[in-house]
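Re: weekly structure request thread

Next one in the queue (131 aa):
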Amino acid sequence: MLAAAGFFAWRFGYPAAVRHFFRATGTVSLAPGQASVIAPNSMLFVVARNRDGVPVAVKKTINPVFPLNFEMSAADLIMPDLLTQTLYFEALLNTHGQILDAKKGDLCGEQSSGVRSISRGIKIELRARIK
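Done, posted below.
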């Protein structure tokens, strides 16, 4: 009986706690020389992916001003059941609003390594231009 209680606590308690306490903050900045590519009505997407590369949270900002401070919480989760302890963050700046379809001229950047689902100080620099 104790084993069953432990299993249910692990299976249903831990994932719920991770989702509830999910919070990530950081800054998205532009690489030198990239400010001229920002067009009116640009959209910045900050995406958190789990260890398998599946997007689990998205934060969208219209007409961002850089450097941009962002905060993601449980309200930004799109796939809460797939949330893992280690996340990989990336950012995409475009004018067409499609997050998974990068087009010529879009800017992108990513966090160099995985971070915990409760993290501060994430730094992403938009530098790579889609060609």
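The first helix runs from residue 2 to 21. The two ends are 59 Å apart (CA to CA).
Next request, please.
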